[in-house]
Structures are given as C-alpha cells and as structure tokens.
Design goal:
This protein is α+β, with helices and mostly antiparallel strands and 252 residues long. Helices cover 37% and strands 26% of the residues.
Length: 252
C-alpha cells in the first residue's frame, strides 16, 4: 500500500491498541462461499472452504542477472497481465493477489464442480506461458519457466492494518494458500510437470472431464513427493501456437 500521510509513532498509543485488539470480541462467521472482502472490518472475519491457485516464475532470483532491466520489466508485465486477465475471467474467482513475480487467486469451493474452473485456469496459464515464450523467442530473448500449485482447504479471511491510516490488506489464514504456494514451488522441478495439485484437488477432479478423458487422467502421481502433476495445455491456444510455429518457426 502507498503511504500518503506520515504520523509520529506514539508507543503508548501503540500499547493501548495492542490491548484493544487482544481484548476485542471479534465475530468470525462460517460461510458457504468466498465472501466479498468489502464487507470486512477490523472486528469481523469469515471462515470458508476454497481453492487456492498459485503461479510463480522458477529461479526468479537469477533473472536480474540474466535479462536487461527493461526486458525483465516487460516480461513481468506481460506475464502478470495475462495471468490476472485469465483468473478474473471466472465468476468463481473471488480474490487475486500479486506478490513479486507470484500471482495467486482464491476460487469458490462450495461444490465439486467448481474444481473445473480452477483446473481450466491452470492449463490455460501453461498455454499463456508457452505463447509468451514463443514471442520472447521471436525477439531472441530466453524463455521463462513457471510452477503452478492448486490446493483445497479452509481459510479464515480478515482485514489487517493500521486502523485509520488507509494502509490495510485482506489476509488469508489457514493452510490452503501456503500449501498451494508449496505445491507451486515443486512445479517444473524434480520431474514434476508445470501443474502440481494436492490429494484433495485430485479427488475432486474424479468424474470431471471433457467427455473423452477424466481430468484425473491428465495427472501423474509423483510417489517420492506424494503429489500429482501435469503438463496439460489448453487445446485451442496450443493449436494457435502450433499454427504460428508453422508460419514463423522459432526454436523454443
């Protein structure tokens, strides 16, 4: 958050605020779907079940030494722009966050059918990265690699910040976001495909599919790491990319 005003720090007032927060009678409501974060205050919060999807760039700490600053800025802007556009296109996507080179989102998980939209976002994201890498190749710029992680679980959503300052943010507590991040960190590593999902997500994919294959069939079980992974891409986007490779080949 941008700092727009500065105020001297008063430690006595700070100590009082600490006590007020610890003594407060907060209300945490259990809800079926991801609530509107605009209804949050400093005295309430919501429990709910959700899917969390996390995507970030592999070996991002090495990129500043690999690319020129302007080139790296363009890569980040292009990648983040289209991942956000993809996530927000789903009516079941309720929150999107950008942290460095990571983009993560919260999706409804009221019914198992909601898993389809999260899975669609994951494999479409793979196609976005493949297309970005093709366009980078045409400019003689090295490709990037990403990992994508998806988990399902319970979350507590609260508002946290300095009351009255305008500096605050929505915080998601619980294992679902952290686990999605950990699964993401395994994507495109140690023989894993780009997309890595938890047991709960894999279970929800049973019976879901495109009429020919169940979605579970696109995943392989990594017994050493106890996860399921895939390199699936979106067919129509992949077809477009293949056409471009025929018209103007580039060795990715």
């Amino acid at each position: 958050m941008k700092v727009t005003t500065n105020k001297a720090y008063d430690f006595k007032a700070s100590f009082d605020r600490l006590q007020d927060i610890l003594d407060s009678a907060e209300t945490f409501e259990q809800v079926d779907t991801v609530p509107n974060s605009d209804t949050l205050s400093y005295s309430n919060g919501y429990y709910f079940k959700c899917y969390a999807i996390f995507i970030d760039i592999r070996d991002s700490s090495t990129l500043p030494a690999k690319y020129q600053k302007r080139t790296l800025a363009k890569i980040y802007r292009a990648y983040i722009s289209e991942i956000v556009a993809l996530f927000q296109s789903s009516p079941n996507c309720k929150e999107i966050n950008i942290v460095g080179d990571s983009v993560w989102a919260i999706y409804n998980a009221k019914v198992k059918d909601h898993v389809s939209e999260v899975f669609h976002a994951a494999y479409a994201a793979c196609s976005i990265i493949n297309t970005l890498n093709y366009k980078l190749c045409k400019k003689s710029i090295d490709p990037i690699r990403v990992g994508i992680g998806i988990d399902k679980g319970d979350a507590l959503m609260i508002l946290a910040g300095f009351k009255g300052s305008g500096i605050n943010d929505v915080i998601y507590m619980g294992g679902v976001v952290n686990n999605a991040s950990k699964l993401c960190s395994k994507g495109s590593k140690n023989a894993n495909g780009t997309i890595v999902i938890s047991d709960d997500v894999y279970s929800d994919l049973q019976g879901k599919g495109n009429g020919t294959h169940e979605y579970q069939s696109y995943f392989t079980h990594n017994y050493l790491e106890n996860n399921y992974h895939s390199t699936m891409v979106r067919t129509d986007m992949n077809d477009w990319l293949n056409e471009q490779q025929i018209i103007s080949p580039c060795n990715l």
